[in-house]
Amino acid sequence: MIYRLLAINVDGTLLQSNGRIHKSTKEAIAYVQQKGIYVTLVTSRSFVSAKKIAKALKINSLLVTNQGAYVASEHGKAVVAKRISEEITYEVIRFLEGFPCQIRIVHDEFSLANKYKLNHNLLAKTVFTTGDPMFYSQQFVDSISDTLRDDPITAPKIEVYFEYEDDLEDAQETISTIFNEVNMTKLNDFRLDIMPENVSKLNGMISLGEELGIKLGEMVVIGDGIDDIEMIEACGLGVAMGNASPEVKKASDWITRSNNQRGVAYMVKEHFRKQQPIEFLRKMNIIKK
pLDDT tens digit string along 37-51? Predict the structure, then answer.
């Protein structure tokens, strides 16, 4: 099979545990781009945060961000820009404020969060690593619903970090029953992402493929999280990181090394060295466009 697009998840995949991108990963992405492969990021991060990472990798492509709710390039018009309505955003937030949790509305260019302090130190750290405080405006308020009453927001994504596992399960069940206008992804036992209806990383990849004229079967995706499973199963070659959960590995076609063992670089060079450049394949009439 000839693959024309490579999509890489960010946290736990592209980035090492220290939040950095290894030099070998940058070299591997440059290598595959030279072969004419379209390289993109597919992430739960905001567009602003993903754009910064793409710039460091010299990727000038459409990026699939906010779990697929926002697909755009730095200079181009958004291919996908879905948001939860002001009314539903307010109602969901007001419901969530009944739980001990930190709530974070992730907008395209800023975030709005409550001041709840999580007791889980490890979990609390993730709240600040999914955004980028230096380049991304983050506002903390006592009550998000009070703030929204005066200044309504349409939300591409709402991140919720629960104190207790049972609360996440209860909240997910209730929201799915009451609000048909949203979609949810449980990232781990304590984190729930709430997006507009029909939003997912897979649907973001489908929209990207339609824009570029690339089929799902011609895509390689690399990820490590539960929210990556759907697209790993649907795309032509689904790759799980060595640090991924057993469910993700089971869904994949290929398991590479962990993010701290340069798993992306290893997979890219192992696989794409066997594939001829896209331009050569066109000249040989092996691919038509």
Answer: 999 999 998 888 899
Residues 6+ apart with CB under 8 A from 6: 32, 37, 38, 39, 40, 219, 220, 221, 222, 268, 272
Assess contact for 145 and 59: CB atoms under 8 A.
no
Instruction: Please give, one letter per residue, the 3-state secondary structure of 111-134.
Output: EEEECCCCCCHHHHHHHHHCCCCC
Compute, in degrees rounded to 10, the torsion defined by CA atoms 133, 136, 142, 144. -140
pTM of the shown model: 0.88
Which one is the CATH code of 86-196: 3.30.420.40, 3.40.50.720, 3.30.390.50, 3.30.1240.10?
A: 3.30.1240.10
- Cβ neighbors of 55 (< 8 A, separation 6 or more) are none
* Class for the domain spanning 5-81+200-283: alpha beta
CB distance 156 to 66 below 8 Å = yes
Closest CA to 87 of 179, 186, 161: 179
Q: What is the mean pLDDT of the chain?
A: 89
* Residue in 1, 74, 84, 64 with CA at minimum distance from that of residue 210: 64
235-268 pLDDT, tens digit each: 999 999 999 999 999 999 999 999 999 999 999 9
Sequence-ordered list of residues with C-beta below 8 angstroms from that of 153, at least 6 positions apart, any chain = 86, 89, 105, 107, 112
